[in-house]
# Entry
Amino acid sequence: MRRLIILLVVLFGLFVSFRLSASVVGSGVVVGPGVTLDVACNDCTGKVICQNFEGTGTDNGETWTKGGTTANVDFDATGVILRGAQSCSITNAGEAYSIHLGANLAEFWFHTMYQTAALSTGDHLDLIQIRDSADATFLTIRIRNVSPGPPVMQIKNGTIYSGNGTTTVAIDTVYHIWGYYKNDGHATVWLGTNTSRPASAEVTMTNGDSTASAHSVKLYRRSETMLEYFDQVLLDDAEFTTVCP
Ligand SMILES: [Ca+2]
# Structure
């Protein structure tokens, strides 16, 4: 009788184990009370641009080019890694230029991870430029040095500058910069430090004068000696408020 009980306990244990395994494989979500597995996260699903700077050069089949002094752009940088195994670094007088989009986007949402080792000693530091089909910049996300105050975020939409953000941008800090644009004057920037977009925007403007549509993305810097890192560059015509870890 005792052996039978032991045998039944063992068989029950095996049954439970099998059920858990089947649950893991089948759903990949909840395997038991308080136990939740991460669902596979894919930044690139449905995105117009999705660049994670992994492997040699760029990834996801996207063509990015290096502008300025090309040696100063490294798509395989490992000095500071913002995400994965590599990031894109840009030092003085360099720029990384995305593929031209398959379509012109009159409204889009944007995200990039960003860290800088120094801030501009000038009036401002352009981080991201969005360009139209004529290769003209119509939207710039930048860090403005507000004399005598600290560096803060600012948007230039067409020829109109937004107000200044309120959060002081720090060096050697990983940021998630989120953006929004619509060619009716709207542009917004959120400044976060994790994979969810902050509830409150850092800068919002509704009086921009650009009516252009996005055709390409440029990660940009001034001709100063500094070192910047970018990663997880996403752009889409559908809103997204979280990114993969
Ligand atoms: Ca990366």
About this structure: The chain has two domains: 2-36, 49-236.
